[in-house]
Structures are given as structure tokens and as C-alpha cells.
Amino acid sequence: MGRPERTTLDAVAAAAGVSKATASKVLNDRDGVSDATRQRVLAAMKRLRYEPSTARAAGSLHPVVTVLFDAYESLYAAQVLAGVVAAGLELDIDVVTTNPTGAHRHDPLSAEWFHRVADKGHVGVIVVTTEVSPEVAGDSTGAGLGLVLVDPVTARDVDDDGLVSVSATNWTGGYQATEHLIALGHRRIGFAGGPAESQPARQRLHGHVAALSAAGLANDPALTKQDGFRYEDGRDMAAAFLDLPSPPTAIVASCDAGALGVIAAARDRQLRLPQELSIIGFDDTYAAESASPRLTTIHQPLREMGRLALRTVLAQSRGQAPEAHHYELVTSLIVRDSTAPPPGPPTA
Fold first, then answer.
1. SS3 content of the chain, % helix, strand, coil (to 5)
2. Taking every pair of C-alpha atoms in the chain, what is the biggest distance, in angstroms?
3. Cβ distance 136 to 163 under 8 Å?
4. pTM over 0.90
5. Across all residues in the chain, what is the average pLDDT?
6. Are residues 138 and 178 in the same domain?
């Protein structure tokens, strides 16, 4: 005898008396379906023993991992995702992506959302630069899913919550950036940081302050801002620094996108770069090499972070305890054309 024919979504829709589009909305937990219709479709799926094509059927299909991003459009996100996908290809893992602003019936990272992901046959979730609550570790475990955070946005120490995270040595990177500028002779250095609630942003700022302190320099509050990781944030923070009575001769940006915004603010004031203002970024994305001037930046191994996150969440799904709760990959300084000694003798 041949294998029984798999029930199709068309058959489910017909049995429930709805369109295939409506049945698909129920399957993918989307809005726009009444509770009564939703229950009718779910009952038809159960009665017909419908198995979604994304489900794992007797090990015949590749395991699936969900990657949740706060935003897709950043170069940072693209490189992390490239690492996740590359590891997936190596390990026969399929990768699907989503974000918190999608049309989800349940709030992403809620207990209901985790169970819905598990019901689709997925084995784990990777959460990238997205705010998490202390409950997510228990909720993901309760749904039988592995969970790994990449550069978590949380005001708490993730180790205290039993969460597993992957990031770079952000404190060291912040220190390296500022140390480089100090070695060039800069003494007034602005810091255009990411949001205060971001753990990586806080760590980079702490490294910056430590480098100033090690050089015997005071941390001027007027030269520190923590507004965000976007191009617009970098531009606005730099504008505020450059309008000071005594502006900085160099600016550390917490990401490459912000550094491009700093460049724009400097160009608006017709400053020569790097002769009159040195700029250093963080990430070493594609934009750093093609910027004008080419951007000195802190390289963090984004692809490797994505690879490690995928391997770790897969191990969790197989019942293996993580070797550590927090993995930090090494940063390094990449010197290009956007940094130079300050004009004239350094100020005390």
C-alpha cells in the first residue's frame, strides 16, 4: 500500500466552509478572523488530522527556527541574518523571520506566541535586538522551544533570568574606539550612543568612559548622548555636540548607521573630515567600507554571532544544556580614513 495522501489546506477550508485565505490566516495566527470562524477552522484541522507543511513529520523535514528582529532594514540585521542562514544551510535547518510589528494574533514573545510557534513544528527562536521580559525563558521552555538572544535589549542582567545570549565584547569595543582617538591626540570626544535601555549600548558607553578615565580625562556630560542606533539619531546627536561653544574634535558613534549620521551633520557645517572632526563607528558593516571618508570602526563579528546563535538554539532543542549563558565574541579596531590627529595642539 502507498502512503496515505496528506490533507491539504484546501480540504480544511472546504470542511470549515471558509476560503483558503481564511484558513491560512488561522494556520499562521493572523488577525482578521472571528473567534467562531477560527474555532471552526481549528476543529476541521483536528478532524482531518491536517499537518502544516512547516511541521516536522517523522523527521522527514528539516527543523525550523524562527528569527525575531526588531527591524529588518539595518545593515546590522542583514549581517546577523546572513550568519544564521549560513549556519542553517550547513546544519540542514530552515530559517523563517518575523518582527514585533507583524500581524500576529498573539503578542510576540508571549506564552501564547511561543506555543503557536511550537505548534507549527519549529524547534527554537532567536531574538535579535528586541526587548525581552524576564518571563520569556520560562515561556519558551514551557512551549518546548530553544531560545537565544542576540544583543538583547533589556535593563536586566540576562544571566539572572536563565536566558542565553550572544553578543560581542561591547565594553572592550567602546574602550578600543576611544583609546584610538586619545592616542591620536583628541581630548574632547563626543559619544553618540544607542538607547539607554540597550545592554550593548550601555556597555559601549562604559568602555568609552573607562578609556577616558585611564587617560586622566574627565567625562563631560555635555559630550554624551544616548538617543538611538539610527542614522537620524547619529545626525541629531552630532548636531548638538557641534553646536556647543567648545565642540568635540572627535565623535564615537555606537553603530555605523549613527556614524553616517555624524558625517552628515559635519558636512552640514562644512567641516573637513577627518582634518577637523574624526569619526569612529561600531559594527563594521558594508557601509563602513563605502562611506566617504571610509569609516574607522569597531568590527564585531556579526555573521559569527548569527552562526553561534543558530547552533546554540539547535543544541537547546535537542536537550543539551548551554556551555555558557552569555557568549561574547571578540571585537577589533579597523582603522580607515575617518580618524586623524586633531587640528592644532591637543587641549588639556
1. 40, 15, 40
2. 88
3. yes
4. no
5. 87
6. no
Cell output for 96: 523563517
Q: Please give the grid coordinates belonging to residue 110.
A: 508571549
Chain centroid, CA 107 distance in Å:
18
Does the residue 285 lie in any domain?
A: yes
pLDDT tens by residue, 136-162: 888 888 888 899 999 987 645 545 557
* Interval 104-136: pLDDT, tens: 555 788 888 888 888 888 989 999 988 888 788
Q: How many CA atoms lie within 13 A of 8 on its CB side?
A: 6
Helix/strand/coil for 80: helix
Length of the chain in residues, anyone?
Answer: 348
Eight-state DSSP code of residue 221: G
Q: Please give the DSSP secondary-structure letter assigned to residue 321.
A: P
Asked whether 69 and 77 are in contact (CB, 8 A), the reply is yes
Q: Are the C-beta atoms of 126 and 98 separated by less than 8 Å?
A: no
174 plus 267 within the same structural domain? yes
Determine the structural domain holding residue 266 and report its residue range: 170-301
136 and 185 part of one domain: no
List helix spans (H) across 19-104.
Answer: 20-27, 35-48, 75-91
